[in-house]
Amino acid sequence: xxxxxxxxxxxxxxxxxxxxxxxxxxxxxxxxxERRLSALEDLLRxxxxxxxxxxxxxxxxxVASALVPLVGEARQLYELARKRALEAxxxx
Length: 92
Description:
- There is one protein chain.
- The chain is 57% helix and 7% strand.
- The chain is mainly α.
- A two-stranded antiparallel sheet has the order 1-2.
- Helix 1 packs antiparallel against helix 2 (60-87).
- The radius of gyration is 17 Å and the shape is elongated.
- The protein starts with 5 loop residues before the first strand and ends in a 5-residue tail after the last helix.
- The mean pLDDT is 79.
């Protein structure tokens, strides 16, 4: 088994908790990034269609802070996938 090249996710509080395996295929990195983005879209749609007559209006800052790690992870995964794809030999 080849040596893994692990990179910590930037949005996490501690570097020793969650890692991205840089030897993973770029397609896998893109897929996980897309999952994060789908979760973000779902949360933003909830805010978009919300009537604003209850507690959610007062909790907007908390919702926004919950979205920040998802955005950071998606961005980092896309950047790592792009770098991996550019480094891959042609035809692989």
